[in-house]
Design a protein that fits this description.
- The protein has 29 helices and 11 strands.
- The protein is mainly α.
- A hairpin with a 4-residue loop joins strand 4 and strand 5.
- Helix 5 runs antiparallel to helix 6, helix 24 packs across helix 25 and helix 24 packs parallel to helix 27.
Length: 760
C-alpha cells in the first residue's frame, strides 16, 4: 500500500532493499538532482516484477524509463565504494578517489585506467595516484591526476604499437624505446597531430601542444621515477635505462598577456555590443553580460565573478561594495568598491535569480539559511537548491563567440581586462602596492607582471625627476650635469630645491627668478620656447603621450584617406567590397574600420551601393532565368503532347494484336486440340523407335566396315554382294536401301513431331 511521503520496499529481496535505502541516503547528501518519490516507488515496483536480487552488475538499460536508468547508475556508483575495496579496484583497472577521502570539485570519484593496456604500467599508475591522494600534499584539483593518466595512456599506446610484445613484458624494454616515444611525441607536436590512444576522459583524442607535451614528459618522468624509488621497477624487472631516458618537460615558456588596445577596450565596453552579447549569446538570460561588466569594471578574475553569492552587493556607509572570494590567494570575503550603475544592474540580477528560484519551488522564496548559499548566477543543470553556479566553460563559449562576431582583428581573452585595469591604474597615479592590494596579488612581483613594468620603484621616483624644457638646447636632458642615474636621495633633494625656486606653469614649472618672486614674465608667457621652463617626470610623460596622440591622429587621417582611395579603386575595378577586403587593401585593422566614424561611414556607404547594384543584377538574372524557363516549359509541353500521341498509337496497335491472338485461340476447339496431342504423342514414340533403329544400323555398319578392313573387302559392300552403278548412280544392296529408307522416315517423323508440337 502506497502512502504519501513514504516508499514501500516490502516484497523486495533483502539485499536489494538495503541497496535502495543506501542509494537514497547517499543521494540525499548531495543536492545535484531531484528524485521524486513516485520515481523511487516505481523503480522498486519494477525491480520486484523483474525479481531483481541486486543492482550490482545489472545493466541499467533493461529499464524502459530514462529516469530509472539514471537512478540505477547513481546507486551503482554509490555501491561501488562499498562492495569493492581499493585492492579490488586495482585489479579491475580503475581507482575511486573517495576510498582515500578525496572528491575533486565538479568531478566523479571514478577514474578509469583501462585505457592503459599493459598491466604493469596500469598498476604503477594506480600506485602513483594512490600515493598522491594519501600524501599530506594531496592535490586540490583533478589536474595532476588527469595529466599523469594522460602520460600513462600515451606511453601505453606507443608501447602497444612499437615495443616488442606490445610492451607487456617490462623486462624487454630499454632506453631506446623511450627515445622513440619522445621523438614521436615531438613530431606530433610539430605536425599538429593527436595523441596516441585514448588520452582524455571523454574518449576524444586531444591534440599535442607544447604545454600538453611538456606535461606528459614531466608527469611521465614522475611516474617512472616513483616506481624506481618505491622498488616496484626492480620487482617487475623494468630496466633502469628505460626510466632514466624519460626527459624533463621543463617549466614552459612564461608569457604574460597584453592589455586591450584602446579601440578594442572601447568596442568591448560599447553599449550596442553589450546588448548583442546579452541578446545573441545569453538567450535564457543567465547573466553573461553582467559577468563581463563586473570583470571590466572591477578587474576580478572570471572564476571569482562566476562564483558570486546572491547577497554579494550592497551599500555600506553609502558606498556600493561587491563582496567576493579570492580563493587563488586565500583572501575570502574581500570587498571592492563598484559604481552605482553596476550596483543597479546586479540588483536586477538578484531579483531575476530569486524569481527563477520561486518558479522552481512553487512560488516559495528561499529561507534566510537557503538565501545565504544561493548563487548569483545559478545553473539549471542538476541544481535543485540553486547553490551551484554556472561553469567557466559556459562563460568562455559565449564570450568567444561574441568576439568572433565583433571581428576585432586579433585573439583576445577575458583575462586581458585585468591587465588593462592594472595598467590604467598605474597611468592614473596608483602605486604598485595599491594595485597589488586592489587586484588581490600575493606580491609586488605579480603586480609588476600585470602592469608590465620591470622597475618596482619607478612610480616613486617619477614625480621627482626633473628634465630640461623644450626651449632649451638639450630638451629632455636631466638637470644635473652628471650623466649618472639619480639616486632616490638626489631626486628628492632636487625636487625640494626646485619646488622652492619654481612656479607652476602649463605642462611644467618656470624657474625664472623674477617670475618666481612674483614679477611679470618678460617673455610674454611663451614657456614652451623658454630655456627657463623645466618638466617633471610626470610632465615629460604627459608631453610624450600628447606627441603620440598627435602622431596617431595624423596616422588616422592618412588611414581614412587610404580607406577612401581603396574603396574608389575597388569600385572602378568592380571588385567585391567587404570589411575584410577594405582592411587588407588599405593596410588597416578591422577594429579601425569599426571604431573610426568616418571610415565606418565610408565602408557602410560602399556596402549599401554594392548591395543596390547586386540587387539590380539579381533582378536582371531573374528575368533571364524566367525567359529561359518559359521556353523550356513550352518545349516540354510539346514533347509531352507528342509522347501522349505516340502512347495512344501504341495502345491501339497493342489492342489489334491482342484481338488477333484471341481470334486464333477461338478457331481451335477442344476436340482438335485433343487430336493434335494424340498425334503428337504417337509421333514422339515413332521418333524414339526410328532413333533406336538408326543406332542399331550404325553399329552394324561399323562392324561391317571393321570386318571388311580386316579381310580386304570394300567398306561399303558386303562379301558376295555386288554393287551396281546405273548412269552415275550407285545401287546399294537391299539392306542398305532399307537403312536409307529408315533414315528418310526418321527425318520425316521428326518434322511431323515438330509440326505437331507447334500445332499443340
Amino acid at each position: 500500500m502506497h502512502r504519501t511521503g513514504t516508499v514501500n520496499l516490502r516484497g523486495l529481496r533483502p539485499l536489494l532493499r538495503a541497496e535502495l535505502q543506501w542509494g537514497m541516503y547517499v543521494h540525499g547528501l548531495q543536492s545535484v538532482a531531484v528524485w521524486h518519490l513516485t520515481w523511487v516507488q516505481s523503480l522498486a515496483d519494477e525491480c520486484q516484477r523483474r525479481d531483481v536480487a541486486s543492482l550490482v552488475g545489472l545493466d541499467a538499460s533493461v529499464f524502459r524509463r530514462a529516469y530509472h536508468q539514471r537512478m540505477v547508475q547513481e546507486v551503482q556508483q554509490a555501491l561501488r565504494k562499498i562492495y569493492f575495496a581499493p585492492s579490488d579496484t586495482r585489479e579491475a583497472g580503475y581507482i575511486e578517489t573517495e576510498h582515500f577521502g578525496m572528491r575533486f570539485p565538479g568531478r566523479s570519484s571514478y577514474v578509469d585506467l583501462t585505457c592503459i593496456s599493459q598491466r604493469w604500467l596500469r598498476d604503477l599508475l594506480w600506485d602513483h595516484i594512490a600515493d598522491a591522494l594519501s600524501s599530506p600534499t594531496c592535490p586540490r584539483s583533478a589536474q595532476p591526476v588527469d595529466f599523469v593518466r594522460r602520460a600513462g595512456a600515451g606511453l601505453s599506446a606507443f608501447l602497444e604499437a612499437e615495443a616488442p610484445c606490445g610492451g607487456h613484458e617490462p623486462s624487454m624494454l630499454r632506453g631506446e624505446h623511450i627515445h622513440c616515444f619522445v621523438a614521436d611525441l615531438r613530431n606530433r607536436e610539430r605536425l599538429g597531430l593527436a595523441f596516441r590512444g585514448q588520452a582524455r576522459l571523454d574518449g576524444k583524442r586531444a591534440k599535442v601542444t607544447e604545454n600538453s607535451r611538456r606535461m606528459v614528459f614531466n608527469y611521465g618522468r614522475a611516474l617512472l621515477r616513483g616506481a624506481l624509488n618505491s622498488g616496484s621497477a626492480e620487482r617487475i624487472g623494468l630496466d633502469r635505462g628505460f626510466i632514466a631516458a624519460m626527459p624533463v618537460g621543463g617549466p614552459g615558456t612564461p608569457r604574460s598577456r597584453n592589455p586591450f588596445l584602446d579601440e578594442v577596450a572601447r568596442a568591448l565596453a560599447d553599449e550596442a555590443n553589450l546588448r548583442q552579447l546579452a541578446d545573441g549569446h545569453d538567450r535564457h538570460d543567465r547573466g553573461l553580460r553582467d559577468m563581463w561588466e563586473i570583470i571590466i569594471v572591477t578587474g576580478r578574475r572570471a572564476s571569482e565573478v562566476i562564483q558570486l553569492r546572491l547577497d554579494c552587493v550592497g551599500r555600506y556607509g553609502g558606498l556600493p561594495l561587491l563582496w567576493h572570494d579570492q580563493t587563488k590567494v586565500g583572501n575570502l570575503n574581500a570587498a571592492v568598491r563598484i559604481p552605482d550603475h553596476l550596483l543597479d544592474r546586479l540588483e536586477e540580477r538578484r531579483q531575476k535569480t530569486l524569481a527563477h528560484y520561486a518558479d522552481r519551488h512553487a512560488s516559495r522564496l528561499p529561507t534566510p539559511a537557503e538565501r545565504a548559499h544561493l548563487a548569483l548566477f545559478p545553473t539549471d543543470i542538476l541544481n535543485p537548491d540553486g547553490r551551484r553556479a554556472l561553469f567557466y566553460t559556459w562563460f568562455h563559449t559565449g564570450f568567444r563567440s561574441w568576439l568572433a562576431e565583433l571581428d576585432l582583428g586579433g585573439h583576445y581573452v577575458a583575462h586581458q581586462a585585468r591587465h588593462t585595469l592594472a595598467t590604467r591604474l598605474l597611468r592614473h597615479g596608483a602605486s604598485l602596492t595599491h594595485i597589488r592590494r586592489y587586484l588581490g596579488h600575493v606580491s609586488d612581483r605579480m603586480a609588476e607582471h600585470y602592469v608590465h613594468l620591470t622597475q618596482p620603484d619607478l612610480d616613486n621616483v617619477l614625480q621627482h625627476v626633473w628634465v630640461a624644457g623644450p626651449g632649451t638646447a638639450h630638451p629632455g636632458e636631466l638637470l644635473p650635469s652628471d650623466i649618472t642615474p639619480l639616486t632616490r636621495e638626489q631626486a628628492q633633494a632636487l625636487a625640494i630645491d626646485l619646488s622652492r625656486r619654481s612656479t607652476p606653469a602649463e605642462g611644467g614649472f618656470c624657474t625664472f627668478q623674477p617670475v618666481v618672486n612674483g614679477g611679470a614674465c618678460p617673455f610674454n608667457l611663451d614657456c614652451h620656447n623658454c630655456d627657463k621652463f623645466v618638466l617633471s617626470g610626470a610632465d615629460l610623460l604627459y608631453w610624450r603621450r600628447k606627441r603620440e596622440q598627435w602622431r596617431l591622429l595624423a596616422k588616422t587621417d592618412a588611414a581614412v584617406e587610404c580607406v577612401h582611395q581603396t574603396i574608389a579603386r575597388l569600385r572602378r575595378g568592380k571588385a567585391q567590397i567587404s570589411v575584410a577586403v577594405v582592411a587588407r587593401r588599405a593596410d588597416v585593422s578591422r577594429t579601425f574600420l569599426y571604431d573610426n566614424v568616418e571610415a565606418r561611414a565610408a565602408v557602410a556607404a560602399a556596402l549599401t551601393q554594392v548591395g543596390e547594384r547586386r540587387t539590380g543584377i539579381l533582378v536582371e538574372q531573374d528575368g533571364e532565368r524566367e525567359a529561359t524557363w518559359r521556353e523550356r516549359a513550352l518545349n516540354a509541353e510539346d514533347a509531352l503532347k507528342a509522347a501522349h500521341a505516340e502512347i495512344l498509337a501504341q495502345r491501339n496497335r497493342i489492342g489489334e494484336l491482342l484481338g488477333q491472338i484471341r481470334d486464333l485461340e477461338a478457331e481451335r476447339t477442344e476436340e482438335a486440340i485433343q487430336r493434335v496431342n494424340t498425334e503428337n504423342t504417337s509421333l514422339k514414340q515413332r521418333v524414339r523407335q526410328l532413333a533406336a533403329d538408326n543406332r542399331t544400323f550404325d553399329e552394324r555398319l561399323k562392324a561391317a566396315r571393321s570386318f571388311a578392313s580386316r579381310t580386304g573387302a570394300s567398306p561399303t559392300s558386303k562379301p558376295g554382294v555386288p554393287t551396281r552403278f546405273v548412269e552415275g548412280e550407285t545401287i546399294y544392296p537391299r539392306s542398305n536401301r532399307r537403312r536409307r529408307a529408315s533414315c528418310s522416315a526418321l527425318r520425316s517423323g521428326a518434322a511431323c513431331c515438330g509440326a505437331g508440337m507447334v500445332g499443340a
